[in-house]
Write a structure and sequence with these properties.
The complex is a heterodimer of chains A (316) and B (259). Chain A is α/β, with parallel strands linked by helices. Chain A is built from 9 helices and 17 strands. Chain A has a 9-stranded mixed beta sheet with strand order 9-8-7-10-6-1-4-5-11. Chain A has a 5-stranded parallel beta sheet with strand order 14-13-15-16-17. The longest helix of chain A has 15 residues. With 259 residues, chain B is of the alpha/beta class. In chain B, strands 9-8-7-10-6-1-4-5-11 form a 9-stranded mixed beta sheet, with helices on both faces. In chain B, strands 2-3 form a two-stranded antiparallel sheet. Classes of the chains: A alpha/beta (316), B alpha/beta (259). At the A-B interface, helix 5, strand 7, strand 9, strand 12 and strand 16 of A face helix 3, helix 4, strand 7, strand 9 and strand 12 of B. Strand 9 of chain A pairs antiparallel with strand 12 of chain B. The complex binds flavin-adenine dinucleotide and adenosine monophosphate (AMP). Chain A: Heterodimer of an alpha and a beta subunit.
Chain lengths: 316, 259
Amino acid sequence: MAEVLVVVEASASAGVKKVTLEMLTFARTLGTPSAVVLGEAGDITAKLAEFGAEKIYVAAGEDIDGYLVSPKATVLAALVQQVQPAAVLLGSTQEGKEIAGRLAVKLDNGLLTDAVAIDADGTATQAIFAGSALVKSKVTRGLPIVTIRPNSTTPSPAPAAGTVEQLTVSVSDADKLTKVVERVAEKKGSRPELTEASIVVSGGRGVASADNFKLVEELADLLGGAVGASRAAVDSGFYPHQFQVGQTGKTVSPQLYLALGISGAIQHRAGMQTSKTIVAVNKDPEAPIFELADYGVVGDLFKVVPQAADEIRKRK
Amino acid sequence: MNIVVLVKQVPDSGAERTLSASDNTVERASASNVINEMDEYAIEEALKIKEAHGGEVTVLTMGPAGATESIRKALSMGPDKAVHVTDDALHGSCAVATSKVLAAALGTLNADLIIAGAESTDGRVQVLPHMLAERLGIAALTGARKLTVDGSQLTVERQTDEGYEVVTAATPAVVSVWDTINEPRYPSFKGIMAAKKKPVQTLTLAELGVDAGEVGTAGATSAVIEFSKRPARSGGTKVTDEGDGGTQLVSYLTAEKFV
Ligand SMILES: Cc1cc2nc3c(=O)[nH]c(=O)nc-3n(C[C@H](O)[C@H](O)[C@H](O)COP(=O)(O)OP(=O)(O)OC[C@H]3O[C@@H](n4cnc5c(N)ncnc54)[C@H](O)[C@@H]3O)c2cc1C
Ligand SMILES: Nc1ncnc2c1ncn2[C@@H]1O[C@H](COP(=O)(O)O)[C@@H](O)[C@H]1O
């Protein structure tokens, strides 16, 4: 069976990201998964092997880390030409999409982004228009280059050899035009990554202040979830932009989405309406969020949320 | 500084959107169309740079004839002129083809700085800026929440999941921006009147030297083969808090095994 290249998403703090394991799981239906690590592999190779990576290609060094995206796409394109894979899967993240875009141009090949499923023949399912419609799409020129949205499937282990192969990194000056001079981590504690979390607790304008977001964080921590925010909450300075859920923020698809003081505008729905279960707390019984909530509490979040937090502590 | 801003017209994300029944492309003809929201931030950033450093701002749009409406609206914010690439053969172009056409148009414009939105609300593909940089062989500083121009040196704070990265490059370059970068101005009455007289050059594929067979549905590198509306979600249980709303909520979460 042909190889399927899975471009690994990992972070210094969390190790291999869940979307990587999902991609390895999808890759098995398309061929033999090979993981591609663009950066230092550290100690993640065991995990990649556990989830089915027969081979693990590693391209590391200053030429990869010191510049934005371009060298990674060049190394990946060379690898594609060398192994002629059945497909290339990447994460539907900013960087994953950017690498995919460059790869598509280099190979004059089609690409599909934001897939939530992929069939054995490379047909991808995408949720479009704020999650209101589903399409099935195919790459019609070249091999399937597909970016996969986190939380699309449940990763399952399938131990494989995980043979590591170092790649030689040979990039041109054109790949070194954009230098990365600093990487700054902004604190977010030990919470799971927003797009990968199985529980997301989000606050909106109803939370009323940055200080009050502690309530949202407390509930998220009790449930082991991530914290999200509506745009109104972000624009009002209650919570940082990287946690915004919606049209111009992150798309999340957790098992449970809890919306606190969020009205449920169409642009907010765009980022969360494919969640498995939706729960809302809002004092306005007419709030549109109730139209999609599996369970809704009409009430003041400043009363309901602290009581819920106490109750969870009691039950633990 | 010679700045080109990439502006796309898209169906309003606040209204019902669909694919055309005949060929599964985004239904644009009957949609209520607007400037892609993120591109308004790109226009604002270009205008601020012009105000601080001088130069000229050109709007570049590829889209159907009806996109002139969004072009005039963009011009009413303050840019000097526009280039509209329009050709019936472009209908149904994929991202790969769009980047080919926009790169060809940029080839005629001699820009020092190309500013785009980070993503468009119709496709949300987020790939065009890097595709253009790849084709033009110039730098790309994408996902900016802050842009600093110092002569020919550009510095961007690139927003990431973990925080941000500081990236630098020299012009010519493509920069893409998020909505955290600025607050777009509203067009003034004077701006709206002035926009009516600003030059809008239209370009066809032939004029750009791009073969019609490489773009549109004919040259698409991917195709939508099936389209279905998701069944709308319906509301479930709704309780009114009468002093035990939090407890009831947790009972539900426990029953659903989240606690
Ligand atoms: C192009 C475009 C893109 C956009 N992108 C996004 C996006 O990515 N994400 C996003 O979220 N929005 C986005 N928006 C904005 C969106 O239209 C809404 O304005 C926004 O989602 C509203 O946020 P909200 O629900 O927090 O605020 P509001 O609509 O003001 O709702 C606040 C809710 O809190 C309730 N409330 C108030 N106090 C309490 C209390 N004490 N207890 C309980 N409930 C209370 C109120 O009843 C109300 O329903 C976008 C808009 C546009 C035009
Ligand atoms: N047809 C187009 N005409 C002009 N600019 C475009 C077009 N398509 C995309 N862009 C630009 O590229 C950005 C990213 O778009 P996308 O890669 O489609 O998500 C947009 O915000 C625009 O600035």
